[in-house]
Amino acid sequence: MPLSLSRRSSRRTYPRGVSLFPPYSLPPRRVDGYGITVNVDCGHLTIRDGIGADRREARLPRVGHNLRRLVVIGSDGMVSLAALRWLADQNAAFVMLDRDGSVLATTGPVSPSDVRLRRAQSLAHQSDLALRIARELIDQKLLGQEHIARKYFPNSSAAVSVATARNKLTTAKCNDDIRLSESLGALAYWSAWHDLSITFPRVDLPRVPDHWQKFGSRTSPLTKSPRLAVTPPNAMLSYLYAILESEARLALAALGLDPGIGVLHNDLRSRDSLACDLMEPVRPQVDAFLLDWLLSRGPLRRDWFFEQRDGNCRLMAPFAARLSESAEIWRRAVTPFAEGIARALVSTNPKGRTSEMLSTPLTQARKREARGSVVEVTQKSKPTLRWSTLARKWALSGHLVNVLPPLRPQWEAPLLYRYKVCEGTP
Questions:
Q1: Domain ranges across the chain
Q2: In this structure, what DSSP letter does residue 308 have?
Q3: Could you give the CA distance from residue 257 to residue 251 in angstroms, rounded to a whole number?
Q4: DSSP secondary-structure letter at 263?
Q5: CB atoms within 10 A of CB 201
Q6: Which member of 2, 113, 271, 387 has the lowest number of beta carbons within 10 Å of its beta carbon?
Q7: Which helix (H) or strand (E) segment is 391 a member of?
Q8: Sign (positive/negative) of CA torsion 319, 224, 242, 37?
């Protein structure tokens, strides 16, 4: 499974500058404010939003709209059924986020349900497949956290502790062992963040609480969990994770997988466990995004945040809308992992379609293979780019070569896609 953070440090997962999304991608259209209205008028999608006298209106035709995501922030307004049908006809996703960062609703293009894939997903826990997928996802997460600790906190011992926790994954025999390794890595990883200084303009300092000037603990004193952050960077991180969660849900639905049947997270009524599993290897990329913002984009501003009476730190709507522009980054980051999970699941069905026959609607890897833009992979031939070559090209020091042999064929196609298409052929 590919991980953008494990590329050379000169390569970035996103560019510097004002825009949050890569120049080759389309930003999601965000809708925020009060009295939001999204409906269809004469075949055009009409969007009205804003606050007070600052109202905005847009009319999008069915052709040439360049809309891939409609992100609504808030819950004051109306979205018509005709508008949802318009978005579905255009293969555009709809995401509704609350101002506290929670995901309220997501809907997007859904592939025809393949009962064999759903059955394999449901039965994954009866074999060791779920364990191997969970181990691989957390392995990639810890690898990314180790990379961040070495790059941004070179004087900390966190990187060594995270690497030690990652090595324990090889002996994990159940999900509890994987969760233990993950928690040990997280304890060391977030301890390195604790004393990170947060800067504000001098004119804002009289209105900035003292505890806002440090990153602090990832665990909120209000809930004893990451929920209800009490510092601005923690609030930003929670909001970015919420956007990542929505993209994970959409990616799984597009592949025909059930976002609720997970491989690592326990089943809960109010949680899509597989979407949470899919988030894990991409979380370090979100962390790097935030660190780069804090260290290179200048100080935070007091008017981007507000504090509730209980001390909970929230994002102001304009700033939350600005962060939602990063949705395209997380969509591109999560899709290869989602297709890797689907490939691992279909490989367990010897009489059904094989992983080589599985469609790739998210990365379009199969279409590129047919056009000859990537290495062709067949059942009887091996790709010309081997794992060791990719590891050497990406300077991974052999980390990627340690993927479990039974899972290698499942992750190989997305990896080759990322290398050949995104990185370019050397």
A1: 29-107, 114-330
A2: -
A3: 9
A4: S
A5: 12
A6: 113
A7: helix 387-393
A8: negative
Taking residue 269's Cβ as centre, other Cβ atoms within 10 Å add up to 5
φ, ψ dihedrals at 240, nearest 5° = -65, -40
pLDDT at 113: 63
d(CA 104, CA 214): 30
Residues 6+ apart with CB under 8 A from 210: none
pLDDT at 393: 43
CATH number listed for the domain at residues 114-330: 1.20.120.920
Three-state DSSP state, 24: coil
Answer whether 325's CB lies under 8 Å from 82's CB: no
Give me the amino acid identity at 74: G
Q: Edge to edge, what strands does the sheet with 36-41 contain?
A: 54-60, 44-51, 36-41, 77-79
CA–CA gap between residue 214 and residue 20 (Å, rounded): 24
Q: Spelled out in words, what is the top-level CATH class assigned to the domain 29-107?
A: alpha beta
Q: What is the mean pLDDT of residues 369-383?
A: 47
Q: The tokens of 303 are what? A: 């008017």
> pLDDT of 25-42, one tens digit each?
445 677 877 888 999 998
Which among 66, 57, 108, 112 is positioned nearest to 87, based on CA atoms? Answer: 108
Assess contact for 421 and 368: CB atoms under 8 A: yes
Return the closest-CA partner of residue 249 out of 241, 240, 237, 258.
Answer: 258
